Known about the structure:
Blueprint: H1 3-16, E1 21-26, H2 33-42, H3 56-60, E2 71-78, E3 91-92, H4 101-120, E4 125-128, H5 136-142, E5 147-148, E6 154-155, E7 163-170, H6 189-193, E8 199-201, E9 204-205, H7 211-217, E10 233-235, H8 239-242, H9 262-266, H10 269-273, H11 277-283, H12 293-305
Parallel strand pairs: 3-10
Antiparallel strand pairs: 1-2, 2-7, 4-7, 5-6, 8-9
Helix pairs in contact: 1-4
Enzyme class: oxidoreductase
Binding site for cob(II)alamin: 59, 130, 154, 212, 237-238
GO biological process, one term: tRNA queuosine(34) biosynthetic process
Amino acid sequence: MNATKRTHLIKTEAKRLGFLSCGISKAEFLEDEAPRLEKWLKQNMHGEMQYMENHFDKRLDPTKLVEDSKSVISLLLNYFPEEKQNPDSFKISKYAYGMDYHFVIKDKLKSLLHFIQEEIGEVHGRAFVDSAPVLDKAWAAKSGLGWIGKHSNLLTQQVGSFYFVAELIVDLELEYDAPVTDHCGTCTACIDACPTKAIIEPYVVDGSKCISYLTIELKNEIPSGFQDKMDDWMFGCDVCQDVCPWNRFSKPHNEPLFNPNPELLSFTKKDWEEITGEIFNKVFKKSAVKRTKLSGLERNIRFLKK
């Protein structure tokens, strides 16, 4: 079986598994990303995310993650919800409405790798879902699945940006896709709308100012300088995506596991303020929100009420 046929087979199976799209690039050192990442780290834009300083070489070179790797298979999975939260509520990022995406995507990636091994032969590879030193968005852009927008998220003309990015790194030669061009143009909607001014210049986000960082990654108290700038977000933030013109093309996902607990959608601010451990565990069973624990969510709500 030649590289063209293997590639077609993999992309067809990815679609069958429910992925939005699949792009493939050659597993090689990310030369353009190296100075960018180094500068971002030197300026401490990663805040307390110390893990971003680790495995610098692995982040840029997939052959250090999977021995003798030849290809990076990038995949997108839609999470845009059909229904949104009650407007009189503290807000949760849409990606966290349903089951934790790590579980959902990991299963799909394992199925895809198993399919490759069954159909093509002895292929070694690893699945990555935002949980290892891999620059997901850089690989997806290199694989032609979109371009990195001014808000530093991956953007695709047909579907916007409400999707997860994951990859399989394999020791298999495949046909490689070409990157697409940037279509942000002169638009600055995301930069203008960011409540904490975290997008300090086009394509550069100061992670330590981002509401997602402040409500999830930051373990200490939220600095008082962000008072009245959090726009009622208690877990994550979607502002830069909500205002992006390309997201008018977003269509609801068809993954049942991403459907939210109905209480999450109907809760008012009062309900969130009075949430108990029992209700938290029920509403967020197997959810990404478990990362903050109830104590983290309570800290965020206290800060929003000040």
